[in-house]
Design goal:
alpha+beta
Length: 132
């Protein structure tokens, strides 16, 4: 149990060590290293709302819910990457993700590597018909 806990805490300990304050070589005053790991104070404006803002609208939440179901069914029905014939883990939207996000006729199942390749090489992807 103790070994498992230590193995789990090891990366956290390393981050804490990297975030510690160390004296700089040019002056005696300590300087923080890797500040982006340290929590930053957030200024409050003083304005408040009676009810908090929704992070996602009800309409978008319904669309996202439908998309999740459609995505799962699509990947179950076509689990092979359209390009390299490995296991498909992503859905590529040939027509973009605007109003046609839930239109399954514009979807192709791809693996993560091929999906990255499509977006990193748009001219090749257009030639192959993966982008419009």
């Amino acid at each position: 149990m103790n070994k498992a806990l230590n193995a789990w805490l090891a990366p956290i300990t390393k981050v804490k060590q990297r975030c510690s304050i160390r004296p700089s070589s040019s002056s005696k005053a300590p300087t923080p290293t890797m500040n982006y790991f340290l929590p930053q104070k957030v200024k409050k404006s003083g304005l408040s709302r009676a009810t908090p803002l929704r992070r996602v609208s009800k309409k978008q939440r319904a669309r996202n819910s439908e998309y999740s179901k459609l995505r799962l069914n699509f990947l179950l029905l076509s689990p092979i990457c359209h390009i390299c014939e490995e296991l498909a883990t992503d859905i590529h939207h040939k027509a973009g993700r605007g109003s046609k996000t839930n239109d399954t006729t514009t979807w192709i199942g791809v693996c993560r590597q091929c999906h990255t390749n499509i977006h990193n090489n748009p001219s090749w992807a257009r030639e192959q018909g993966y982008l419009k």
